[in-house]
Amino acid sequence: MGVTDAGSGFDWPIEQLSLENGLRLVVCEDHTVPIVAVNLWYNVGSRHELTGQHGFAHLFEHLMFEGSAQVGKGEHFSVLQSVGGSGINATTRPDRTTYFQTVPSGSLATALWLEADRMGALALCQETLDNQREVVKNERRQRYDDVPYGNWFERLGELAYPVGHPYHHSIIGSMSDLSRAELSDFVHFYESFYSPDNAVLSVVGDTDPAEVRALAAKYFGGIPARTRAPAAVVPALSPQFGAPQRVELREAVPLPRLFFAFRATQFGRPGSAAEEVLCAVLGSGRASRLYRELVIERRLAQAGGEYLRAWQHAWHESILIGMATPQAGTDGSTVPLPELEQAYFDVCESVARDGVTQAELNEAKSVLVANQSRMLSTVASRADQLGRFATLFGDATKVRELLPELLAVTIDDVREAAVRVFPPSNRITLAFHPSALA
């Protein structure tokens, strides 16, 4: 199949329903296998946290598994596993929190009952809060504070978004905020955001809209909608940072490493698709321009990882993020970071100056088509994408527009995206150096 023949990439039926309490339902039938994915997107993430409450949304990812009115601590997992459930987990991002599981289709009612019980009657108590607060703090130590380069993304966010902006702080949150928060603060957060009118329930697999609606009405129908304060108005940011920023860090890292950020277009807005294609051209895989020039031809950077990718936000401006580790010689020395940094920018700017070839564009689109195919290959991933588009855009069928928008990107679109994203005034650099070199 040629990259221009992929259609929408989402050929399954999509039915959208709603309950009187505001819960939105998205149902996608697929009777090829007797399983069903249940995915619940809450419109709450780190961007909804108030000053002094950073980390609340992520902590609730943990608290929601700690028991509810009819389910004991840890029983959410054991009940689902006892009926053959799998993929039971949750994730938090700036724009949302998601809970998901896949079960045999005969156990759909069990999965919905469990989700409804914790939506309507979460068991919040001081002991559970204290326990999970320490779990999250330990997670922060293990993933951010006590590992090499662990805080790179948090630092980029702080530099890319001004103080007070919803994306300025990290998802994992603040140790001090988590420590001093009271149980009443978490109860208020739960009552503000974990309600049917602030959620999308996506069910994909061996079921039908009538069954899902009946079960959802049975288990979720009695949960009332909740009043919440209107979202704060956030002023739009300028399309570019306005001046380059560079931060030198000396820490306990094994090798020097560079991380980059470039302000980009909000997800779903005109230009965002071209920027995603731009990332694929420059930084995705061994055929990408950054890999080819920095690793193979000039031997400046080490192989491994993506060299540029989009971190796309749905409510405010996004960023493109990149990274590169200098090539090491047999004597232990490495390519000087300024040399690698300038080469990285030169490659990015070459797209703004000279554009891309048709072969590069075709390869990038092939990568994106393959990624989309993998992303939609399971009922679980399809349920997640339906919840995403229903939450962010109010219409799950917009998932069908994603791939066509990417495939419609032209050579000129990619060049214009590079002109927009890669001027020297729109870059942030974090340069990590081993502390032993200080």
TrEMBL record:
Residues 27-141 form the Peptidase M16 N-terminal domain. Pfam families: Peptidase_M16, Peptidase_M16_C. SUPFAM superfamilies: LuxS/MPP-like metallohydrolase. InterPro entries: Metalloenz_LuxS/M16 (IPR011249), MPP/UQCRC_Complex (IPR050361), Pept_M16_N (IPR011765), Peptidase_M16_C (IPR007863). It comes from the Bacteria. Residues 184-367 form the Peptidase M16 C-terminal domain. Gene3D superfamilies: Metalloenzyme, LuxS/M16 peptidase-like. PANTHER family: METALLOPROTEASE (PTHR11851), MITOCHONDRIAL-PROCESSING PEPTIDASE SUBUNIT ALPHA (PTHR11851:SF49). Belongs to the peptidase M16 family. This is M16 family metallopeptidase.
